[in-house]
């Protein structure tokens, strides 16, 4: 693959994640082609871009940012033609990804990177469907919503060329993302595995009657979640360890207490009763709240937090 500047991005699938990616790419001044087979997809996409644009304007637009640089096509092949990078956001089904990436590999220029936003599927499960250039298929998993959250998890499959991963890392970094490199494949990647580990114990706490749905939410939102928004788990442990740092904490009494609690973590039963209990708990938690206002406040604070973090050079 030859080195090329990435100026034209094709977005395949324009649901919640895809529309957010489109908005992000346009805000960075890129030319975007898009496609989605659903009825009314183009109208919904353009409405989503318009809805996201005020937040992106507040974050800061590139000098060449323009919603008019979006073109919608009827097929993935048409959208991928001439693209420097393809960002796929299709359903979480291996069979569909195999079919789609085979078509994208045929249609996209030789230099183009083929990236998937998949949350759970590993690149090695479908990249061999690309007869021409399986080495250019990568993982580029964002955290929702991509136009506000900087994280992108970048990695390859068994056939991916290391230079393609490096080029993708440079691209996402250049458009204001915070890419991390997965050294090997794992189902769910990094962020989802960590998130699901937390969900598992949250479900157990509710199912075993330790605390309510609302109080579990409060325990994170008003406790460790505030620190986790600034530093990751290891640095938070280190700062909690005093002069001895993470070594002193883990080698002391809290180290043993941690392993003791690991042995007691729950294995909740994921059944209809559990789903009902969680859904009822969330409904009760939201009964006195305006959900639209809550989401607006969340997004506003996310914008401020991401902006302030970027300006705080002492933070990693």
If you had to describe this structure to a student in words, what would you say it looks like?
With 316 residues, the protein is of the alpha/beta class. It folds into two domains: 8-181, 3-Layer(aba) Sandwich (Rossmann fold), CATH 3.40.50; 191-311, N-(1-d-carboxylethyl)-l-norvaline Dehydrogenase, domain 2 (Orthogonal Bundle). The chain contains 13 helices and eight strands. It has helices at residues 16-27, 41-59, 76-80, 94-107, 162-174, 191-207, 213-221, 224-228, 233-240, 245-251, 253-264, 272-286, 291-311, and strands at 8-12, 31-35, 70-72, 85-88, 113-116, 137-142, 151-156, 178-181. It has an eight-stranded mixed beta sheet, sandwiched between helices. Helix 2 links the parallel strand 2 and strand 3 (70-72). It is globular, with a radius of gyration of 21 Å. The model has no long low-confidence stretch (mean pLDDT 96).
